[in-house]
Amino acid sequence: GLPVIRNDGRLVGIVSEGDFLRRGELGTERKRSRWLEFLVSPGKAADEYVRANGRRVEEVMSQDVVTASPAASLAKVVELMTRHHVKRIPVVEAGKVV
């Protein structure tokens, strides 16, 4: 995954392999059954459509980034990775990647 950083150095998102793999033009976007599609909130469905069909980093990146502080223990980082099903966690201090 690649962190997405604003000009002021603040972390605003992350682009993962999954963001690239779920692409409309490649036919790899997430598929759902009709009943599950009915249960998903309209906002989430719209967000997933934009992410699957976006052309800019800001359109496909994940904005809810799991982060760790420089003082976090390795055990805590492993626990975060396991709980959130992610492979990479940016280390952030005062909103900036260190």
How would you describe what is shown here?
It is a single chain. The chain is of the alpha+beta class and 98 residues long. It has helices at 17-21, 34-39, 42-53, 57-60, 74-84, and strands at 2-5, 11-15, 92-93, 96-97. The chain has a two-stranded antiparallel ribbon. A hairpin with a 5-residue loop joins strand 1 and strand 2 (11-15). It is flat and about 40 Å long.
Q: What percent of residues adopt helix (DSSP H or I)? A: 25-40%
**Strand percent estimate:** 5-15%
Work out the number of β strands. 4
Main sheet strand line-up: 1-2
What pattern of helices and strands is seen along the backbone? EEHHHHHEE
Sketch the major β-sheet.
2 strands, antiparallel
Q: Unreliable stretches, pLDDT < 50, 5 or more residues?
A: none
Structural class designation: alpha+beta
Q: How big is the Rg?
A: 15 Å
Mean pLDDT level? 78
Number of helices: 5
* Coarse morphology: flat
What is the CA-CA span between the terminal residues? 16 Å
Short description:
With 98 residues, the chain is α+β, with helices and mostly antiparallel strands. The chain has helices at 17-21, 34-39, 42-53, 57-60, 74-84, and strands spanning 2-5, 11-15, 92-93, 96-97.
Topology overview:
Blueprint: E1 2-5, E2 11-15, H1 17-21, H2 34-39, H3 42-53, H4 57-60, H5 74-84, E3 92-93, E4 96-97
Antiparallel strand pairs: 1-2, 3-4
Q: Which short descriptors sum up this protein?
A:
13% strand; two-stranded antiparallel ribbon; two-stranded antiparallel sheet; 5 helices
